Amino acid sequence: MFRTIKEQFDTIFREDPAAKSVLEILLCYPGFHAILSHRLAHRLHRWGVPLIPRFLSQVSRFFTGIEIHPGATIGRRFFIDHGMGVVIGETAELGDDVLLYQGVTLGGTGNEKGKRHPTLGNRVVVGTGAKVLGSIRIGDDVKIGAGSVVVHPVPDNSTVVGIPGRVVRTRGENGVLEHGKLPDPEGQAIDDLVRRVSDLEATLRQLISEHELVHHQK
After folding, report:
1. Homologous superfamily of domain range 2-183
2. What does R_g of the chain's alpha carbons equal in angstroms?
3. I want to staple 90 with a disulfide (CB 3.0 to 4.6 A). Which of 21, 71, 134, 149 is the partner?
């Protein structure tokens, strides 16, 4: 348990440059409180203890604004940045070194039974307000842009943006999710249409000009 706590401290210091001291993390980081509470609740859940794991998760939700079902499986060095509004469903599975920003939902798509929440690989980053829904697999080293809604599997080493989420291949060389540099598929499509319309207008003007020239020559 002490190794787990130390590892969480190290993770926060690595991921958040605003973290200045262990005391600050203990007092001011709801993501830290939520994940430690979940580790205990998940262990009790696996032991088959009734009610108490779910009660612990709801107490944690009350104090942190982060809801993690005790059935969710979460790997090592997990970090929730800020955290308010994060929801992680019962059958969600997260690999190691996963980073979630505030407002993220790892949820289901209906009242289906069994495995109904997403599986995230290692080193996955999910941006602010993104929703990953259904029993889908998100591969290793995937970055999901802020506000995206992902309902289909995503291969390794991809960046996903948009509603619904679309896979693109551009990201910073260091693998960091650079929110200000994410591609905008809808915007790109609109730009392409504008260029095509502009080309058609230029072609039309040229044809009209040629037609008027021929008419005057007659």
Report:
1. Hexapeptide repeat proteins (2.160.10.10)
2. 24
3. 71
Sheet bearing 149-150, strands edge to edge: 67-68, 87-88, 105-107, 131-133, 149-150
> Rounded to an integer, what distance in angstroms lies between the CA atom of residue 78 and that of residue 98?
5
Nearest to 166 by CA among 155, 176, 179, 174: 155
d(CA 6, CA 89): 26
Cα dihedral value 51, 30, 177, 125, nearest 10: -20
36 exposure class (CB count in 10 Å sphere: 0-12, 13-18, 19+): middle
Collect all residues with Cβ–Cβ distance below 8 Å to 76 and sequence separation of at least 6: 7, 96, 97
Alpha carbons 63 and 88: distance in angstroms, whole number: 16
Please report, as a single letter, which amino acid is at residue 62: F
Predicted TM-score (pTM) of the model is: 0.76
Give the tens place of pLDDT for each residue, 87-139. 999 999 999 999 999 999 999 987 778 899 999 999 999 999 999 999 999 99
Cis peptide bond prior to 50, omega within 30° of 0: no
Q: What is the pLDDT of residues 17-45, one digit of tens each?
A: 888 899 998 898 999 999 999 999 999 99
Give the CA dihedral 123, 127, 133, 139, nearest 10 degrees: -20
Tokens representing residue 210 in the block: 């040629």
- Give strand pairing partners of 100: 80, 126
Q: Which residue blocks in 65-184 are alpha helix, DSSP H?
A: none
- Residue pair 168/159 in contact by the 8 Å Cβ criterion: yes
